[in-house]
Specification:
Number of strands of chain B: 17
CATH architecture of the largest domain in chain B: 3-Layer(aba) Sandwich
Number of strands of chain A: 13
Oligomer: heterodimer
Number of helices of chain B: 9
Largest sheet of chain B: 9 strands, mixed
Strand content of chain B: 25-35%
Strand order of the largest sheet of chain B: 9-8-7-10-6-1-4-5-11
CATH topology of the largest domain in chain A: Rossmann fold
Helix content of chain A: 25-40%
Shape of chain A: globular
Number of domains of chain A: 2
Largest sheet of chain A: 9 strands, mixed
Order of helices and strands of chain A: EEEHEHEHEHEEEEHEHEEH
CATH class of the largest domain in chain B: Alpha Beta
CATH class of the largest domain in chain A: Alpha Beta
Radius of gyration of chain A: 21 Å
CATH superfamily of the largest domain in chain A: HUPs
Largest interface: A-B, 76 and 91 residues
Structural class of chain B: alpha/beta
Distance between the termini of chain B: 68 Å
Number of helices of chain A: 7
Strand order of the largest sheet of chain A: 9-8-7-10-6-1-4-5-11
Distance between the termini of chain A: 58 Å
Chain lengths: 260, 328
């Protein structure tokens, strides 16, 4: 089975984010970055499928020059080769494109691949649209399922376990090729081995320029500005020494909120 | 023609009756408010099979028309079937703005529907503004740490999905609506996925919704071995212990103790979030709590946005101090 995994590099989970003076995007210069966590689970699912059924795992990543680190890590974990769509521009890191433009760019990069299965995380931890996978399926003309916990072979196609709301699940069958967005946490992530890290250095990374792939036509939505949210609720924060903060909190819960 | 169209989710309950999703009426409320601000009519659509009676239940709201988008091939939800049906409805009626509740089902098909019409859905919207007839939508980035204003460009139709709780169903305006059946043309061969039965993994032994006090634990607890730290706080408060998703995924607490969009929705009189950053998937499950306490080392954590009281600090110092203070 030929499996493509679309991964994204995002700001590390505990980053202190600073909004750029233009308010168009955050300051990216000295930000620690890591793989988008749901995409790490998509990669893990792909590696497990290859182990079970054989085949090839190809990672595709649209991101600036620095995303090559995340791509190397995916190769070190066991992906066979990678496609890096370089989104760097002359003016530095641009604000991210809308998910339709991104999906069309990814589809163009995958045009010669004809994968059996395309996997990606269910959403990104930065923009959080939760749409790129579904849009990519539509652009590539593939059936899809979202929020997938488990994938298994079923005849010529696959059977996937989808998570629904309120603790419900559902199995869905579909033919291949298909696209799935993978839920986090359904399986354990592997670490790269020393051997894997060594091997990754010799694996193929095909480099493409986003500008050469980007579709014509204007986007239909625009990120106008970003800002720190105003607190919708007035919260009382105690940040003194633990014993003092705890005493203040208990006082408030007893005599102000009167809930204990 | 112009208008705001709210697309509503329904499913069959245990007796086989179609019922609206709990967030459906919030989308109708959103459509009414935005429709009034844009001074354009408001419509609702209910896709499914045999949904006319359900559509009739909306006839008492102030809506120009309710479309029962009815077809046997819509009996079970599929992204292909729903996209084909709603694309036809939108092409015929040409709404300006199409609104959805941001449910798991909407996440599954709405981006596909918008793409089929060469548009982009603005997903998971928490607020909106209308200035001079132009809509600006607000959504969250970086798991709630940053907000963004998003605008539509080019020609309608525009698409947006509304986060749970962003609009209130009790603000719905009563009135009367004409109910009309819309029969899309769908071929069985267009539907490529085959959905099987819905199921639950385990009976819920713990009913968190009945607990007056909940202590909930998140990633900040670091290791399974540390769970007794928060269990001790729960004991001191006479509370049920709950958790955010990563804790249950890791198997540190059973799934039935999970609070959030994929777990239980709770509204106790006191909710104490320990080491939980407050990703939106967790917040939607607990933000209705009467009093919320957050304990987190990161002062920027979104959980503080919804907290009434917060302690910024290391939970391994704060929790024992809190237990001691409760015993005084």
């Amino acid at each position: 089975m030929k499996i493509v995994v679309a991964i994204k590099q995002v700001a590390a989970r505990d980053s202190q984010l600073r909004i750029a003076p233009s308010a168009a995007w955050i300051e990216e210069a000295d930000l620690a970055r890591e793989i988008n966590e749901p995409d790490a689970y998509a990669l893990e699912s792909a590696l497990q499928l290859r182990e079970a059924a054989g085949g090839e795992v190809i990672v595709v990543c649209a991101g600036p020059e620095g995303a090559s680190q995340t791509i190397r890590e995916a190769l070190a974990k066991g992906a066979d080769r990678a496609i890096h769509i370089d989104t760097s521009t002359d003016t530095g890191a641009a604000p991210p494109s809308d998910p339709l433009t991104l999906a069309r760019t990814l589809a163009a990069a995958l045009a010669s691949e004809s994968p059996d299965l395309v996997l990606t995380g269910l959403q990104s931890e930065d923009l959080g649209y939760g749409q790129t996978g579904v849009i990519l399926a539509e652009v590539m003309g593939l059936p899809h399922a979202t929020i997938v916990m488990k994938v298994e072979a079923a005849g010529a196609g696959i059977k996937v376990k989808r998570e629904l709301e309120d603790g419900w699940f559902q199995y869905v069958e579909m033919p291949l090729p298909a696209l799935l967005t993978i839920q986090s946490g359904a399986t354990k992530l592997r670490y790269a081995t020393l051997m894997g890290i060594k091997k990754a250095k010799t694996k193929e990374v095909r480099r493409l320029k986003a500008a050469d792939l980007a579709p014509a036509g204007a986007p239909s939505i625009r990120l106008a500005r970003i800002y720190t949210p105003e607190k919708s609720k007035h919260s009382q924060i105690f940040d003194g020494p633990p014993a003092q903060a705890a005493a203040q909190l208990v006082e408030k819960l007893r005599f102000e909120a009167r809930v204990i | 023609m112009s208008g705001v169209l709210a697309v509503l989710e329904q499913r069959a309950d245990l007796s086989g009756q179609s019922v609206l999703h709990k967030m459906a009426l919030e989308a109708v409320a959103a459509a009414q408010q935005i429709g009034a601000q844009l001074n354009i009519p408001v419509f609702a659509a209910v896709p499914g099979s045999g949904v006319e009676p359900l559509a009739q239940t909306l006839a008492g709201y102030k809506l120009t028309r309710v479309h029962a988008v009815d077809h046997a091939l819509l009996a079970a939800y599929t992204p292909d079937g729903y996209t084909a049906a709603l694309k036809q409805l939108i092409e015929v009626h040409q709404p300006t703005l199409v609104l959805f509740p941001h449910t798991y089902q909407v996440r599954d098909f709405a981006p596909k529907l918008a793409t089929a019409l060469n548009r982009v859905l603005v997903s998971d919207v928490i607020a909106h503004r209308v200035n001079d007839g132009v809509i600006t939508l607000v959504r969250q980035l970086f798991q709630g740490k940053i907000n963004a204003d998003v605008c539509f460009e080019g020609e309608p139709p525009y698409f947006a999905s509304i986060q749970a709780g962003a609009f209130r169903a009790d603000s719905l305006e009563a009135g009367s609506a004409l109910v009309e059946t819309f029969t899309p043309t769908i071929e069985a061969s267009q539907i490529r996925t085959r959905p099987l039965e819905l199921f639950r993994e385990s009976a819920r032994a713990v009913d968190l919704t009945a607990a007056p006090v909940i202590v909930s634990v998140g990633r900040g607890i670091k290791e399974a071995e540390n769970i007794p730290v928060v269990q001790a706080l729960a004991d001191a408060l006479g509370a049920e212990l709950a958790a955010s998703r990563p804790i249950c995924d890791a198997g540190w607490l059973p799934m039935e103790r999970q609070v959030g969009s994929s777990g239980q929705t709770v509204a106790p009189k006191l909710y104490v979030a320990v080491g939980i950053s407050g990703a939106i998937q967790h917040l939607v499950g607990m933000k209705g709590s009467k009093t919320i306490v957050a304990i987190n080392k990161d002062p920027e954590a979104p959980i503080f946005e919804v907290a009434d009281y917060g302690i910024v600090g290391d939970l391994f110092e704060v929790v024992p101090a809190l237990i001691a203070a409760l015993k005084k």
